[in-house]
Amino acid sequence: MYMKMHLSTTVLFVLMSIISHISCSSMTVLEQISKLDDLSPAEQRLERRNRFRRPHYRLEENRFHSCEFLRSINPGASDYCGFATYYKTGLGSCGQTHTDDDLIAAINAPQYGVYANPNTANICGKCALLTSNEGKTVVVKIVDRCPECSFGDLDLSPTAFKRLLPLDAGRFRVTWKYVPCS
């Protein structure tokens, strides 16, 4: 009898602790869940994993604005919208080797296309003007393919990424369009 009562009290205490924790922080949890709802399942897994890997960067309200919102604050600044991330550069799918200091990008696989020889892709060498929600811009040259990126996403060199936001941001929504290379 004592064992059952002690166990019941312990379970009740744990449940009350959980409920009080949820009620105190339910707004942030709900906000975080709603931000993750716009992402594909693969992007959600990546975002959850990255939350524990990088220092927390307080730009949550701005990083995940919808594409419609970004287009409304920068009219005419984009043809495409997606997430910007960064990667370790090197030999790209277009057959050229680059460094992290170059202003380059890997475009998502759907927009890269399928070629018997990826070095001959029509997209290789084109330039894109990216605009962040803060109005910062950078022109990058497309030299690689990002197989895990969704349509509209770009994977940037660290230097290109830093022109828009600090690397701590990890990923954020960006609008972009093709422009002539200078």
Automatic annotation (TrEMBL):
Residues 1-24 form the signal peptide. InterPro entries: Expansin_CellWall, RlpA-like_DPBB, RlpA-like_sf. It comes from the Eukaryota. Transmembrane segments: none annotated. Keywords: Signal. Residues 81-175 form the RlpA-like protein double-psi beta-barrel domain. This is Papain inhibitor. It comes from Smittium mucronatum.
